[in-house]
Write a structure and sequence with these properties.
The complex is a heterodimer of chains A (235) and B (265).
Chain A (H helix, E strand, L loop, with lengths): L7 H5 L18 E9 L6 H18 L4 H4 E9 L2 E10 L16 H22 L7 E6 L8 H12 L4 E6 L5 H7 L7 E3 L4 H16 L15 E2 L3
Parallel strand pairs in A: 1-2, 1-4, 4-5, 5-6
Antiparallel strand pairs in A: 2-3, 6-7
Helix pairs in contact in A: 2-7, 4-5
Chain B lengths: L15 E7 L2 H5 L6 E7 L5 E7 L7 H17 L7 H26 L10 E6 L3 E7 L3 E5 L4 E4 L19 H4 L1 E6 L5 E5 L4 H4 E2 L4 E2 L1 H12 L4 H16 L1 H4 L6 E7 L5
Antiparallel strand pairs in B: 1-12, 2-3, 3-4, 4-5, 5-8, 6-7, 6-9, 9-12, 10-11
Helix pairs in contact in B: 2-3
Classes of the chains: A alpha/beta (235), B alpha+beta (265).
């Protein structure tokens, strides 16, 4: 019989010098996403139910993505009964418990947009102070009617920020939304989209997929994918 | 090696080169190719040419763009005359960049594509006996080691947002390009990496190279004393890029070129 003797260096070689390589720890970059939601009286019944379901779906879908769940930060500002309310200040998806929203009241869209932009400004200031990187913020406005307050100034600010590529502003009209009015609010390069029926689920899934892609490092000069599947094609 | 040992015909000034490129999880799951590309070559005068490029995720054929970019750069710089001074070196690497842009444009026309389909970042390093000249366009990093300290070369302008960068095909490319030319004296390590590795190789806040990442890697590269070791150690490097500990931190394509040498004295 013969003995096979392995040289000592062979067994020691199994410990790779590359095990000595240490990886830098870095905080996750953030992907801020602001939702401005119409909860006025006309949203009562089916629409608000579908909206609430959509928000839960948004959270669940984002949670299924390892990076998005840590990086995406959501804020929710509602406008309806009781006026404008910050239902949720920016919070990581992981920590977000979507509140069940109820419908009522008028549509102070202008004030909501103003509030939302201020919330976003404060969040960006926090990021800068903390040395956190962040992706281009998204502002997603969903309404089923038309504004009952003066919205021109807030809309102008949002459109300006969008044109300077400081944020991406999306306007979605539901049901009997006045699309003509919404065209005055939405950026010229990104006209308002009409939701197909009450397909909030499909829309929020699209939003989730978009935020996942954004939060996965480089987007470059990538434009948002067209909102197919949940939007009506208008001639 | 002793003085009696035969020297390899192209010793590249004593440089040992390791390289690896790993397709990111995001591309694996979407059945997309590795959009990073790299190429390295020895110069007849013992110098080295290194190039790495990262194709834009949104560009349809960016893996073609990145490959054309590195091939053009290496082709342009490998046979070029040694620049006589820093200005000459800068002009030469700019010329390589412009040539890459031109070739991308020509290839796009030939195939009936838009040149934007080939969007890619570009990092290059020309190493001669006297100087190390680095050019960077877009994200990623160029790092040199002088035995005691690590320095970033050709650091790009700070991007406004995470995930934004400039590409070879961008109209503002020539404004965004950065070049550094330093004496080769004392340089013992050079690394090129694409942005997939930035979160583990640098401190994202200030972009500084992370010493405990690079030091063992340069030592590992320096020990690759012959072709066989360069091959096997490059394979080990590939293993590191493919490892869970790296891929759990970054889902992007990752590419790392390491050139290392020991200096006498």
């Amino acid at each position: 019989m013969w003995l096979c003797v392995l040289p000592l260096s062979h067994t020691l070689g199994r410990v790779s010098e590359l095990d000595l390589v240490q990886l830098a720890e870095n905080p996750d970059p953030r992907a801020p996403c602001l939702l401005l939601l119409d909860t006025s009286a006309s949203m009562g019944g089916e629409p608000i139910r579908a909206l609430n379901e959509g928000l839960t779906l948004l959270k669940d879908d984002l949670m299924s993505d390892e990076l998005a769940r840590r990086r995406v930060e959501l804020a929710v500002v509602t406008f309806g009964a009781g006026g404008v309310r910050t239902a949720q200040d920016f919070i990581t998806v992981e920590d977000w418990q979507p509140e069940t929203l109820s419908a009522g009241g008028s549509t102070p869209l202008g004030e909501a947009l103003s509030s939302g932009l201020e919330l976003l400004r404060e969040r960006k200031d926090m990021y800068r102070r903390a040395g956190l990187q962040y992706f281009r913020p998204w502002v997603f406005l969903i309404t089923d009617g038309e504004p009952t307050d003066s919205f021109e100034e807030a809309a102008r600010m949002a459109r300006l920020a969008d044109s300077e590529r400081g944020l991406a502003f999306f306007v979605v009209g539901v049901d009997r939304a006045n699309l003509e009015r919404l065209s005055e609010i939405a950026p010229p390069g990104r006209p308002p989209v009409k939701l197909k029926g009450l397909q909030f689920a499909e829309m929020f899934l699209w939003l989730s997929q978009s935020q996942q892609r954004i939060s996965h490092s480089r987007v470059g000069d990538q434009l948002a994918r067209p909102p197919v599947g949940w939007s009506e094609v208008t001639s | 090696m002793t003085a009696a040992d035969p020297q390899p015909a192209l010793e590249s000034g004593g440089w040992r080169l390791l390289a690896a490129s790993q397709r990111g999880r995001a591309h694996v799951s979407r059945n997309q190719p590795n959009q990073d590309a790299w190429l390295a070559a020895s110069r007849l005068d013992g110098g080295l040419v290194l190039a790495a490029a990262d194709g834009a995720g949104s560009a349809r054929h960016s893996q073609i763009g990145s490959r054309i970019a590195v091939a053009t750069v290496v082709n342009t710089l490998t046979g070029s005359q040694v620049p006589t001074d820093a200005d000459g070196a800068r002009s030469l690497v700019i010329h390589a960049l412009k040539t890459a842009r031109r070739v991308l444009g020509a290839e796009a026309r030939r195939r009936g594509h838009s040149v934007r389909d080939y969007a890619s970042t570009l990092l290059m390093c020309l190493v001669t006996e006297k100087a190390v000249t680095a050019l960077q366009l877009g994200d990623g990093a160029l790092v040199v080691h002088d035995g005691t300290a690590l320095t970033r070369l050709a650091r790009p302008p700070t991007a406004r947002f995470a995930g934004e960068t400039v590409f070879l095909t961008s109209p503002e490319a020539l404004d965004a390009v950065r070049i550094d030319c330093i004496p080769a004296d004392g340089v013992t390590g050079i690394a090129l990496l694409t942005d997939g590795l930035e979160p583990v190789a640098t401190s994202l806040g200030n972009g500084d190279p992370f010493e405990p990442f690079f030091a063992p890697l340069f030592a590992f590269a320096e020990g690759a004393a012959d072709d066989a070791l360069q091959a096997s150690r490059s394979a080990s490097l590939q293993g590191l890029l493919a490892s869970d500990r790296v891929t759990s931190r970054t889902h992007d394509d990752t590419t790392l070129l390491l050139a290392a040498r020991s200096l006498p004295g």
